[in-house]
Amino acid sequence: KPLGLLCFLQLFDAVSCLAKENTRLLVLGRKHMLVNSSNWKREIMKEMQNKADFFFAENISEDDAFLLYATLQSGKHCKFVTRDFLRDHKACLSDSLTRHLFRKWQRGHQIAFSPSVEGKHINFLHPFRYDCVVQTTGDTWHVPYKDAFEEKYSYRVPRKWLCLQQE
């Protein structure tokens, strides 16, 4: 499938899947998505618009700013889904503390996704409700870890924890 059509079908699958959870959805896109083409199908767009609210920015716009604003404005429980790692935005932040706070906020609000191996559905990886850093209580330490090396993105956190207790 052409890349544009593949993205469109993944968007359709994501909206359909998330709409089943009875969550309010806002899809941020660009105006070219409204034009019927080989990549964007008008009838499927209408079906998606019945399941979610849409905001269409200009085709040349930087839509990440809309995404961040909409997420922040929607409240602390709002989550967002994007394949973007938002590295450009982190790089623009003036100091390491602000970048750290942004990454922490991102880990708590970004839902990661990937198509299944067979391409039949989308797998969502929801953020944790706790911060993925070393946790201590008294003489017990909980350390997040990964079994194998993989490139780490700021929104992906280890799913395994090592529990250490001092004797």
UniProtKB/TrEMBL annotation:
Keyword Transferase: no
GO cellular component entries: mitochondrial ribonuclease P complex
UniProt KW Ribonucleoprotein keyword: no
Protein localization: Mitochondrion
Main location class: mitochondrion
Molecular function, one GO term: ribonuclease P activity
Superkingdom of origin: Eukaryota
UniProt entry keywords in alphabetical sequence: Hydrolase, Metal-binding, Mitochondrion, Signal, Transit peptide, Zinc
Residues annotated as signal peptide: 1-19
GO terms classed as biological process: mitochondrial tRNA 5'-end processing; tRNA 5'-leader removal
Domain PRORP: from-to ranges: 10-163
Pfam family, one: PRORP
Family, similarity comment: Belongs to the PPR family. P subfamily.
Name the UniProt record assigns to this protein: MRPP3 ribonuclease
Provenance organism: Geococcyx californianus
